[in-house]
Amino acid sequence: MKIFDLTGKTAVITGSSKGIGRAIAEQMALAGANVVISSRKEGPCQEVAAAIKKAGGKAVAIPANIGDKAQLRALVDKSHDAFGEIHVLVCNAAVNPYYGPLAEITDEAFDRIMASNIKSNLWLTTMVMPEMAKRRDGAMIIVSSIGGLRGSPKLGAYAISKAADMQLARNLAVEWGPHGIRVNAIAPGLVKTDFARALWENPEVLAQTLKQSPLGRIGDPVDIAGVALLLAADAGKFITGQTIVVDGGVTIAGRS
Predict the structure, then answer these.
(1) Is residue 254 situated within a structural domain?
(2) 224: domain range?
(3) Is the CB of residue 27 less than 8 Å from the CB of residue 222?
(4) Phi-psi region for residue 156, left (φ > 0), alpha (ψ -120 to 50) or beta?
(5) First to last CA, the chain
(6) Could you tell me the maximum CA-CA distance found in the chain, to the nearest angstrom?
(7) 181-219 as b/e: b if 16+ CB within 10 A
């Protein structure tokens, strides 16, 4: 039994045209999965799908805006059309339109963060849960952040949304576990992606992160992909309702 094998399974990954989502899609394709590449813009999705197919994998590009419920419904339906049943769902896409103290955030920015980072995940998981329950098998992964584990002077709203994602995973795991569905969250630390560019390109933030990290580096997208593969495959079949921190040890090392 190959416990990291996803042959014949279909994985839908949001926010997978770059960064962590792309790395997850690539690794799942290497493990044999049919992967659905999805983000807002069609062009980048097509590029990633083409690269995976060129490498011998199976992939299709289905763009969708996570803030639009109808587009998420279409994502699920078109994934069925392309590959049949969905076995793995990775909710990776997120937004962060505001950087600053909570006292100064606009209602519009706060509502957008909560809707995109929490409600859209609930929408999408709810759309896919019934077929997984009928099959009594499925894995769902929500990409959260270590921001959800501690306070932040500048990323408070984003951190609140990511803490809620951890609880969403726990709650869905309790509700759907009896139907054979596993739901977990991954909490990455600082990872070298375009999404986090403002942080790792800031010399002060980077220096502080490296000082706190026992491993002495920031993350690479593939570091997160390995954990996603674990949680999607039979290797993680007895793991549910958990948040797995992947941060090079930053959250356990203190601030000295």
Answers:
(1) no
(2) 10-245
(3) yes
(4) alpha
(5) 45
(6) 54
(7) bbbbbbbbbbbbbebbeebbeeeebeeebbebbeeeebb
* Rounded Cα gap, residues 10 and 87, in angstroms: 5
Cα distance between residue 16 and residue 34, in whole Å:
14
pTM score of the predicted model = 0.95
**Average of per-residue pLDDT across 209-215:** 84
229: domain CATH number is 3.40.50.720
Q: What percent of the chain has pLDDT over 70?
A: 96
In a domain, 44, yes or no: yes
Residues designated catalytic: 158
Question: What is the spatial distance between Cα 198 and Cα 8, in angstroms, rounded to a whole number?
Answer: 39
Q: Helix 107-114 and helix 156-176: axis angle, to 10°?
A: 30
Query: Is the Cβ–Cβ distance between 46 and 59 less than 8 Å?
Result: no
Backbone angles phi, psi at 123, to 5 degrees: -55, -55
At 198, is the pLDDT very low, low, confident or very high (cuts 50, 70, 90)? low
Residue 206 confidence (pLDDT): 76
3-class secondary-structure state, position 84: coil
* CA angle 176–25–55, rounded 5-degree value: 145
- CA dist 194 and 161 (Å) reads 20
3-state secondary structure 88-130: EEEECCCCCCCCECHHHCCHHHHHHHHHHHHHHHHHHHHHHHH
Contact between 251 and 146 (Cβ < 8 Å) = yes
Q: Where are the alpha helices (DSSP H) in the chain?
A: 19-30, 42-54, 69-83, 107-114, 120-135, 156-176, 197-200, 203-212, 221-232
Determine, yes or no, domain membership for 4: no
Total domains in the fold of the chain:
1
Structural domain contains residue 86 = yes
